[in-house]
């Protein structure tokens, strides 16, 4: 007998069909298998599930594959479950929140007031507060939530969490009204600081004096953020850095890059998020947007003027001695690490002069608005 016709939707229906084909009653099957007739009645009524052992017994006497009984049982169970299932709208929200955001790291960093990621109500309360919304389903990373940060690119949930932390800290800072003229003076003052790593401790004060909120937030795992530029309003620019690369050349390049965004008025309509600002992305190639080309060019010339860098390379290429490199830095009154960084970028030889790429993070964060590396910036409730 055909055991796979479409009319058999349950194992009970298949048993009934096989019995009818043989002219057997349910009592006959019960006697053959050595079970109660009531048991057979439950099988045919699909009130008792057919397990592997029962399926093998039925295979022995009804000449039908055990797999077919089990397949029908599985499909029947799933159909019943689907009928009884009631969608939980909160489950998909939790999928995006807990699957996308670095919840454990946010708890560890003190951004969320919860003891453990498994305390879902506490985490959701913490996230609601962190993102500044009335309820969890309004959090920005959810597909149906209205966008609030207006980021120019499409940030990942992890990047978005970092951005919100920068924005929250910046919103609590008190600085004078922004002045473009003061920024031009500040850039000249910052240039003087490039001779020594320890001078970077003055950066935060200089930027505050010209009306720029300067915030440093340690990067989150996999975020790959270097910096961000945005405006709280038309007179309140914000620069956020992650300092994920603790090198003097990288710090000054990224800072000057973000300062040029402010200087040009970039980031007023949409946050300018800079990620992996190195290699080709730090250049001026055709693949780079106009805003980024302008910022990269300003940053590169700030570290080492392009004309002087070109002349140095033309004179010394292809052999660059450490003595010549240090002498060139002294002539320009900059730290050798800035020359080393430019040479690495221009020659693609990142193994050269690495010992001159001095760490700078401890100096930069001195006196700045900092969150990370064991420090939690005090945010008002």
Automatic annotation (TrEMBL):
| Pfam families noted in UniProt | HTH_3, Peptidase_M78
Q: Which domain of life is it from?
A: Bacteria
Q: Which InterPro entries match?
A: Cro/C1-type_HTH, IrrE_HExxH, Lambda_DNA-bd_dom_sf, Rad_response_metalloprotease
HTH cro/C1-type domain: residues covered: 15-69
Q: Which SUPFAM superfamilies does the record cross-reference, listed alphabetically?
A: lambda repressor-like DNA-binding domains
GO molecular function list: DNA binding
- Its family? Belongs to the short-chain fatty acyl-CoA assimilation regulator (ScfR) family.
* Protein name, as recorded: ImmA/IrrE family metallo-endopeptidase
* Source species of the chain: Sphingobium fuliginis ATCC 27551
């Amino acid at each position: 007998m055909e055991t796979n016709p479409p009319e058999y939707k349950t194992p009970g229906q298949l048993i009934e069909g096989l019995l009818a084909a043989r002219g057997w009653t349910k009592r006959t099957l019960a006697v053959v298998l050595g079970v109660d007739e009531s048991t057979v009645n439950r099988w045919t009524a699909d009130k008792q599930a057919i397990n592997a052992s029962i399926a093998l017994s039925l295979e022995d006497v009804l000449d039908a594959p055990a797999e077919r009984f089990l397949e029908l049982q599985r499909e029947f169970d799933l159909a019943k479950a689907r009928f009884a299932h009631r969608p939980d709208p909160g489950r998909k929200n939790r999928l995006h929140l807990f699957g996308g955001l670095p919840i454990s790291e946010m708890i560890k960093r003190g951004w969320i007031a919860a003891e453990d990621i498994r305390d879902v109500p506490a985490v959701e309360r913490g996230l609601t507060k962190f993102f500044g919304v009335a309820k969890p389903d309004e959090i920005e990373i959810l597909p149906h939530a209205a966008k609030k940060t207006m980021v120019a690119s499409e940030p990942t949930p992890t990047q978005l969490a970092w951005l919100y932390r920068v924005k929250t800290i910046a919103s609590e800072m008190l600085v004078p009204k922004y002045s473009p003229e003061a920024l031009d003076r500040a850039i000249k003052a910052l240039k003087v600081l490039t001779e020594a790593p320890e001078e970077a401790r003055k950066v935060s004060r200089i930027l505050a004096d010209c009306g720029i909120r300067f915030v440093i937030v340690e990067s989150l795992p996999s975020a790959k953020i270097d910096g961000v530029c945005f405006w709280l309003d038309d007179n309140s620019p914000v620069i956020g850095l992650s300092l994920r690369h603790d090198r003097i050349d990288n710090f000054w390049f990224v800072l000057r890059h973000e300062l040029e965004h402010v200087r040009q008025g970039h980031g007023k309509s949409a946050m300018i998020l800079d990620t992996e600002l190195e290699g080709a992305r730090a250049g001026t190639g055709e693949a780079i947007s106009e805003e980024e080309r302008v910022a990269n060019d300003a940053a590169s010339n700030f570290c080492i003027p392009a004309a002087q860098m070109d002349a140095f390379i033309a004179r010394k290429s292809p052999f660059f001695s450490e003595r010549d490199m240090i002498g060139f830095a002294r002539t320009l009154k900059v730290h050798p690490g800035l020359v080393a960084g430019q040479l690495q970028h221009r020659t693609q030889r990142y193994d050269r002069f690495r010992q001159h790429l001095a760490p700078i993070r401890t100096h930069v964060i001195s006196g700045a608005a900092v969150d990370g590396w064991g420090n939690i910036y005090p945010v008002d409730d």
